[in-house]
């Protein structure tokens, strides 16, 4: 049975603002719900990787190695800043004509990749498994099986929350399709993503 304390902790972690949330909103606003859901799938795939890595000790290595942790977070920070700069550049060249709300993305794979890379280059995602999961493992039980159950629960909570975000953003997207509003949203998301990138780069281990 999954402890309620674990579920509540995962909910708090999921709803806390961070790089993943910003990316989901950005993809959904820019390209619509399909792109948002693709980004959610990419983020969840990243969690699968971190869960598997935690079993084999990779997250422990990242947590223990200053070089590995710093390298990963710098790569992640650079990627977030790059996505943010792209949003700011879009805000400068947004046309004065209304933007069709059914404009498709260059490919759902691109949105999936954005969600995946954002998760994989965030060392905090890996450290979460290392710091949180051992507190809820029961001595004497199959560690691998219990870890898999906890990981599945955490992934389900994360995917459910981000899917709800995508649905809400998709609902208001038409109202946000006006050029002036779209420019402001691109500017806000650009600043937020760059800010998150800087915060990630300066985060301590």
Write the layout of secondary structure elements.
Blueprint (H helix, E strand, L loop, with lengths): L3 H12 L3 H13 L1 H23 L2 H7 L1 H28 L14 H13 L2 H10 L10 H30 L6 H24 L3
Helix pairs in contact: 1-8, 2-3, 2-6, 2-8, 2-9, 3-6, 3-7, 3-8, 4-5, 4-7, 5-9
Overview of this protein structure:
This protein is mostly helical and 205 residues long. 78% of the residues lie in helices and 0% in strands. It is built from nine helices and no strands. α1 runs parallel beside α8, α3 packs across α7 and α3 (33-55) packs antiparallel against α8. The radius of gyration is 18 Å and the shape is globular. Residues 96-105 have low confidence and may be disordered.
Computed structural class? mainly alpha
- Label the overall shape: globular
Q: N- to C-terminal separation?
A: 32 Å
Q: What is the helix fraction of residues, given as a range?
A: over 70%
Mean pLDDT: 79
What integer value in Å does the Rg equal?
A: 18 Å
Helix/strand order, N-terminal first? HHHHHHHHH
Number of DSSP strand runs: 0
Task: Count every helix, treating DSSP H or I runs of 4 or more residues as helices.
Answer: 9
Tell me the fraction of residues in β-strands, as a range. under 5%
The main pleated sheet reads as: none
Low-confidence region ranges: 96-105
């Amino acid at each position: 049975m999954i402890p309620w304390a674990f579920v509540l902790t995962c909910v708090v972690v999921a709803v806390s603002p961070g790089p993943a949330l910003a990316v989901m909103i950005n993809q959904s606003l820019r390209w619509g719900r399909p792109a948002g859901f693709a980004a959610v799938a990419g983020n969840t795939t990243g969690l699968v990787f971190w869960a598997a890595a935690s079993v084999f000790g990779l997250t422990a290595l990242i947590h223990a190695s200053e070089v590995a942790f710093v390298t990963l977070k710098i790569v992640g920070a650079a990627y977030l800043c790059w996505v943010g700069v792209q949003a700011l550049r879009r805000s400068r060249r947004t046309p004065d004509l209304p933007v069709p709300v059914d404009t498709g993305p260059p490919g759902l794979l691109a949105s999936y990749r954005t969600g995946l890379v954002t998760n994989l280059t965030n060392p905090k995602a890996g450290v979460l498994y290392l710091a949180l999961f051992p507190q809820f493992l029961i001595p004497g039980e199959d560690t691998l099986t219990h870890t898999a159950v906890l990981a599945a629960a955490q992934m389900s909570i994360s995917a459910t929350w981000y899917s709800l975000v995508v649905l809400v953003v998709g609902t208001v997207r038409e109202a946000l399709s006006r050029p002036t509003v779209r420019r402001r949203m691109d500017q806000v998301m650009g600043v937020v993503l760059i800010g998150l990138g800087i915060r990630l780069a300066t985060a301590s281990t």
